[in-house]
Amino acid sequence: MLRVRQYVPADREFVLSLAPRLAIGIPPWRDPQKMIATVQGWITESIKQHGNKTMVIVAEDEHGERLGFATVSHDTHFTGEGQAYIGELATSEEAEGRGVGKALAQACEQWAREQGYRILSLATGAANERALGFYRHMGYLDEDVKLVKLL
After folding, report:
1. DSSP 69
2. How far apart are CA 2 and CA 11, in angstroms?
3. Taking the alpha carbons of 104, 109, 111, 112 in that order, is the dihedral positive or negative?
4. What is the pLDDT of residues 8-66, one digit of tens each?
5. CATH at 113
6. Which residue, among 76, 92, 83, 78, has the nearest Cα to 111 in the 3D structure?
7. pTM for this one?
8. H or E segment at 17?
9. pLDDT tens by residue, 76-124
10. Which residues is 132 bridged to in the sheet?
11. Residue 45: inside a domain, yes or no?
């Protein structure tokens, strides 16, 4: 049994511990340590904004063991249309394949609907095949492609 609930301050260490999971699939030309530090910054900022601009959600099992987290916030598409945005969604390695990511994504979708949004967006690494497959299976569509050239 999974329970999805709002973040509480006692979750901070657990949530930050999942930062390396959000660096899976980064391209080889990016520094993994810088990526993890950046992700920790994103998570910290989401925690600061929790309950205001952002909602931080934690998934746990029936024994209260934390299994994953997600952040969802108010955002604006470059066209000016308001939308919700999943900034981070990560599960512990042990929780993979147990429906935790799905429960977190569904909680983000519910929050977005409650806020009146018709669009929920997110970004993930192009090489993170597992995440791409997961999100596509959940009904997410490709919208933008970012290209880089190494010089």
Report:
1. E
2. 16
3. positive
4. 999 999 999 999 999 998 999 999 999 999 999 999 999 999 999 999 999 999 999 99
5. 3.40.630.30
6. 83
7. 0.94
8. helix 12-17
9. 999 999 999 999 999 999 999 999 999 999 999 999 999 999 999 999 9
10. none
11. yes
